[in-house]
Input
Amino acid sequence: MSSVAVNQVGYPTSGPKRATLVTDAVEPLPWQLADDAGRVVADGTTDPRGTDVSSGQNVHTIDFGAHQRAGAGFTLTADGATSHPFAIGAGLYRPLVADAMRFFYCQRSGIEIREDLRPGYGRPAGHPGDRDVPCAPDAGDYRLDVHGGWYDAGDQGKYVVNGGITVWQLLHAFEHRTGLDDLALDLPESGNGVPDLLNEVRWELNFLLRMQAPSGLAHHKIHDREWTGLPTLPHLDPQPRELRPVSTAATLNLAAVAAQGARIFRKHDADYADRLLAAARTAFTAAGTHPVRYAPVEDTVGGGPYDDDDVRDELYWAAAELFLTTGGQEYADAVLASPLHTADVFGTYAFDWAATAVAARLDLALTPSTLPGRDDVRASVVAGADRYLAVQRAHPYAVAYAPPGNQWHWGSNSMVLNNLVVLAVAHDLTGEARYRDAALEGLDYILGRNALNLSYVTGYGTDHARNQHSRWYAHQLDPSLPHPPRGTLAGGPNSGLQDEVAQARLAGCVGQFCYIDDIHSWSTNELTINWNAPLVWVAAFAAERD
Ligand code: 9MR
Output
């Protein structure tokens, strides 16, 4: 059966406008664009693209970019199939920036979520006992106050490496995108004179600071001793909490984002910036003077492992942030000595919690500094973007992500988005329209132009994900509980099918089809702080220009 997949939110007036037709036909077909009254306002002929590897479908693309008249309720028809309705216009992405960012307040630990600020989402403070948490037997013999921060995902663990990349990306957006200074997020702190985005990020940064042990090293994570079931509201979690051992990756994450935070918070709160910088320096030194400690893959009871056996990228990133904030020669030396400084780091996906070299590269490219060879750094980002551009152009759904063997990663939606970040930064660096258009068009996939005809963002589009794996937004299991808030991104197709629902329902799936909007499918349909952060970033880029 034919279908027409579109960006269900809509297309910026002057941006690229394409859709993907699934059909058996191999010859070009006529298409029509109709307005909300059903009048045909544009027509043309499809471009047959053959079999799409990512879905196994025979597809055509439809380019209706010549139509530049704004409106709501447009539909595309071809081969007897009609798309979901969509808008064309300006300002389409501004609400998404705010909602994707407002998501973080609802993930807060250690503080009541106020019903007046988030109607339908109020709840008592979760895990007040995180103010006094013992080390697990293999982690030390002391206790720390590690309250606050954001719950990572559908679980109620708090992980330094994932908090780190999330903080980095939100601060990176704040530093390099426009329109985020006055983004109103309806937080308890709103109105305190500090931009709300920084108020939200500070909640997590404070937690990351608390995870620093007396040695200067940071604990990798704190979570429940055993896994809890669904639903479990945070304030009703019966499990004891424990600090897991310190790790070099966590320590360098802390160094990186505390240094970055010091740079960005200085203007608003110099004392806080000093505190952040001191913690960053201590962490960097501690990481260099203690033996390397890797977070093990086996540590999966009560929380996820976030295992990583290569911390050279974290070292490069921490050195880069410390250098950009302080100008210190020792940090410049560490940047220049890193094998990652000149390595090709723009692989299948640009970066994530485990692969952080691109975070360093993007900041070194964008943030003014005296680093020798900065032009080469900038050129390397553009070269990386060229590769993602080529992948996207070859892809009939315009996805700038094509994993080897069509084996989609856990959290693939965040990888799709992070590759768009590289394209957008290439636009910042060169001003060239092709990178801007690629970054804009890349959002189509997330918002419904995909093989499932589904928007992966709750509340956005006619048909959208709403049952992401969560112990609290568990409406699917208990109708008195809410769905995830508007602006929540689902993890997306994951060929690994690690959970039982995915195994039962998706066995043999091809790429894009390895996803199910079921609360028990934690491997394809979780929500996670480090997946919403790139949504904020890319939506902010789109909002700047639509
Ligand atoms: O996002 C993480 C993904 O890259 C890993 O492959 C996966 C398995 O280790 O874990 C994911 O992270 C989960 C974490 O361990 C616990 N909280 C939820 C995270 C998202 O599913």
User: Anything to note?
Assistant: Residues 152-153, 155, 157, 304-306, 410-411, 526, 528 surround 9MR (CB under 6 Å). The longest helix spans residues 374-394.
